[in-house]
């Protein structure tokens, strides 16, 4: 009986959150260990299906960088990066589309559907979802600023959410690979964090959640910070506390907040059912970023 009462208490604790988030939209960037480990894949799919059945509209944007590099090497092509961005020629872009839009996207869709969901795979090409422009990197020098061309790499120019709204109305769960298309019809590879941020902004989502392989944002002493606001973030960037791979994630979060997303979260995807623990418990497990 004690165990049964504990289960009841857990359900009651989640009730206010279920009530508050009913009919709202969550955008989830799915990557890291949660996208590789078989047990974590199952937990992620179950969390998403649960969200869907209790009335939370869920949109998933996934990455796949390690898998792209693995396939490139199998095909005799060595991955090259500049400032953390993959140099993407036409052949590499074909591999990116094959891996992201085919292999990874359909695996995620299959996992969700096998647990009772109704997932649909998309890329940014579908329905003109992600309009993009070519991204050029800046290489600063003392005399002038040089632009570096890294190929078919893009940044989001606009989001057309019509196809997402249509799918959500009918109870489908969109699963999106971060491939955009420019005015000339060329496919462009885009950072999945930024795509998730742009989609959350376009949908005026309640939450943007980024699954990562770290516990959250840490202070200078290594302690995880449960809540930060934009001013805190700016100070930590200027002081060098936030940098490296965390920087684009934090930038994605602050951009989303600037564009009307209520709250953003950086969550450790290595923890089973991390989404449920972050959303439906008083304590949470990651770092939330608010305006």
Please tag this protein with its features:
single chain; 291 residues; alpha/beta; Carbamate kinase; eight-stranded mixed β-sheet; two-stranded antiparallel ribbon; 9 helices
Question: What does this 3D model show about the protein?
Answer:
The chain is of the alpha/beta class. The chain has one domain: Carbamate kinase, CATH 3.40.1160. It is built from 9 helices and 14 strands. α2 (38-53) packs across α4, α3 packs across α4 (90-114) and α6 packs parallel to α8 (246-258).
Task: Compose a concise summary of this entry.
The chain has 291 residues and is of the alpha/beta class. The protein has helices at 2-21, 38-53, 65-74, 90-114, 162-169, 192-203, 230-238, 246-258, 274-279; strands spanning 25-30, 57-62, 81-82, 85-86, 119-123, 130-140, 145-159, 173-177, 179-181, 187-189, 207-212, 227-229, 263-268, 287-290.
């Amino acid at each position: 009986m004690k165990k049964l009462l504990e289960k009841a208490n857990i359900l009651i604790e989640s009730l206010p959150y279920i009530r508050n988030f009913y009919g709202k939209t969550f955008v989830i960037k799915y990557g890291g260990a949660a996208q590789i480990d078989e047990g974590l894949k199952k937990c992620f799919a179950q969390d998403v299906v649960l969200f869907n059945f209790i009335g939370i509209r869920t949109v998933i944007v996934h990455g796949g960088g390690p898998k792209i590099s693995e396939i490139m090497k199998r095909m005799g092509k060595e991955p090259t990066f500049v400032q953390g961005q993959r140099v993407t020629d036409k052949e590499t872009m074909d591999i990116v589309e094959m891996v992201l839009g085919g292999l990874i996207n359909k695996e995620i869709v299959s996992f969700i559907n096998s647990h009772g969901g109704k997932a649909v795979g998309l890329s940014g090409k579908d329905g003109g979802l992600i309009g993009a422009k070519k991204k050029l990197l800046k290489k600063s020098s003392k005399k002038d600023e040089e632009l570096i061309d890294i190929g078919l790499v893009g940044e989001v120019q606009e989001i057309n959410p019509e196809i997402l709204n249509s799918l959500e109305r009918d109870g489908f769960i969109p699963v999106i690979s971060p491939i955009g298309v420019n005015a000339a019809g060329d496919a462009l590879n885009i950072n999945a964090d930024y795509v998730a941020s742009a989609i959350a902004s376009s949908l005026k989502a309640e939450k943007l959640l980024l699954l990562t392989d770290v516990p959250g944002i840490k202070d200078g002493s290594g302690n995880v910070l449960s809540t930060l606001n934009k001013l805190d973030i700016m100070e930590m960037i200027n002081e060098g506390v936030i940098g490296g791979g965390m920087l684009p994630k934090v930038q994605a979060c602050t951009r989303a907040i600037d564009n009307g997303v209520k709250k953003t979260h950086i969550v450790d995807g290595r923890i089973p059912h991390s989404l449920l623990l972050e959303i439906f418990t008083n304590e949470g497990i990651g770092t939330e970023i608010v305006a």
